[in-house]
Amino acid sequence: MVEESLIAVLINGVFVKNFLLIQFLGLCSFVGVTKDLKSATGMSGAVIFVMTMAAVASFIIYTYILVPLKLEFLTLICFIVVIAALVQLVEFILRKHVTPLYRSLGIFLPLITTNCAVLGVVMLNVMNEYPFIYSVVFAIAAGLGYMVAMLMMASIRERAEYVNVPGAIQGLPHAFLVATMLSMAFVNYFKVIPL
Amino acid sequence: MSKVLDEYIRGITTDNPIFGLVLGLCPLLAVTTSVENGIGMAAGAAFVLVCSNMIVSALRKQIPAAVRLPIFIIIIATFVTIVDMAMEAFTPDMYTQLGVFIPLIVVNCIIIGRAEAYANKNNVFYSLIDALGSATGFLLVLVLMGGIRELLGTGAIAPFGHTLITVPINPATFMIMPPGAFLTIAILMAIVNYRKAKKLARGD
Q1: Is any Cβ of chain A less than 8 angstroms from the Cβ of B193?
Q2: Segment A158-172 mean pLDDT
Q3: Which residue from A31, A37, A72, B111 has the fewest beta carbons nearer than 10 Å?
Q4: Out of A77, A124, A180, whose CB is closest to B179?
Q5: Contacts with B26 from chain A: Cβ below 8 Å
Q6: Interchain contact B82–A (C-beta under 8 A)
Q7: Under an 8 A CB cutoff, do B25 and A27 touch?
Q8: Which chain B residues are within 8 Å of A81, Cβ to Cβ?
Q9: Is residue A45 part of a domain?
Q10: According to the model, what pLDDT value does residue A191 have?
Q11: Residues in CB range of B31: below 8 A, 6 or more apart
Q12: Hey, which residues does B165 pair with through a beta bridge?
């Protein structure tokens, strides 16, 4: 069993072990989708949703199908299929019932399948042997942490449009320099929040 | 012969997974706290890349275009599972160090990118060469970054228990913490951009 309290899991997920800035999970979307605030918000929303759903689905599959049948070696293959199916399902539902949101998310929705953050959450849940409620809370916390980092990055990069950046640093190097400073701030949560 | 060499070199220079195509950043930044981890990660990724590229290439006429991506992912996940189990059995220390990033090789964009962009269209032999080229390119970048961070962060490079270089500096722990990874990649990318711009200005 786990000794941490639920609050600790939550704060750990959002700040201390922030997925993007401390654990480096999901960096493709972090540098790719943060050019403006609107798409960063849409992407974060979709990721939180898929992460939570994936945590629920993967927990059920792992505990009630894979473990009783001693098929743990299929964990990875099962989870990636579950996530892909889930993303597809979310896409169908959004397209049918919430068309405006579906349009604004566009290409980001299918891209979530290959986002390491989502697979990272479900694999970490298995590795840490979290029970059901912990798995879900951890997924939500990771998603919120992802959103915090994405929104900060997007707002900084939106303003950086008007800054005169030297030629060689334009684009990705600049994004990574911004990430360096954000990450420096987050690293210090280790000391501020004694868990 | 020269085409073989060209295909191999291409994976290291113009199509370098990190600096050319900007793929596979998550493992690059996360595991390069030391040269040793970088080599371990690159070895795992190289095995999966070579095997999946060859299998995808061998099956390219049988795989229906509409469902090719799910099939690629299943093929890759199979080999990642093999790497995962092999590393857990034979190199348990490395396995704990790399942690969740071994199963995450499955969503490494480099591997699915090569399957989609190259192995899906070319024969088995060239797919093997292409995979080896990309794997070497990935390894070099991982070792470079691991080397810079380990040297500045601990004052020495000591992969697998052999101390190679020591420098008499006050180690900056910052470099082996997460921000150090972002800083190193930012500077390396800026250098690559600068050289590209210079080349372009010279006109070749």
Answers
A1: yes
A2: 86
A3: A72
A4: A180
A5: 24-28, 116
A6: no
A7: yes
A8: 70, 73-74
A9: yes
A10: 67
A11: B37, B38, B40, B41, B97, B98, B101, B142, B146
A12: B157
- Grouping H, G, I as helix, E, B as strand and the rest as coil, residue A7 is helix
Q: Pick from B70, B100, B178: which is nearest to A183 by CB?
A: B178
Helices and strands counted in chain A (H then E) = 10, 0
Does A189 fall in a domain? no
**Does residue A190 carry a pLDDT above 80?**
no
- Burial (CB < 10 A; 0-12, 13-18, 19+), residue B1, is exposed
Determine whether the interchain pair B81/A24 forms a contact, defined as Cβ–Cβ distance below 8 Å.
no
pLDDT digits (tens, 9 = 90+) for B151-193: 998 888 888 888 888 888 888 888 888 999 999 999 999 999 8
Q: Do the beta carbons of residue A30 and residue A150 sit within 8 Å?
A: yes
By residue range, what is the domain housing residue A147?
21-183
Q: Do B178 and A22 touch (CB under 8 A)?
A: yes
Is B107 close to A172, i.e. CB distance below 8 A?
A: no
**Residue A27 to residue A117: CA distance in whole angstroms:** 8
- pLDDT digit string (tens) for A29-80? 888 788 888 888 888 888 898 899 999 999 999 999 999 998 888 889 899 8
B125 touches chain A (CB under 8 A): no
Residue A94: predicted pLDDT: 80
Chain A residues closer than 8 Å to B87 by CB: none
> Hey, where are the domains in chain B?
2-147
What is the residue whose two structure tokens read 């993007």?
A20
Low-confidence ranges of chain B (pLDDT < 70): 1, 204
The count of other CB atoms within 10 Å of the CB of residue A3 is 5
* Residue A159: inside a domain: yes
Say if the ipTM goes beyond 0.90: no
Closest-approach residue (CA) in chain A for B105: A116
CA A83, distance to chain mean position in Å, is 13
Q: Is the pLDDT of residue A105 over 80?
A: no
B181 touching A, CB under 8 A? yes
**Nearest-by-Cβ selection for B106 from A31, A76, A173:** A76
Task: State how many domains chain A has.
Answer: 1
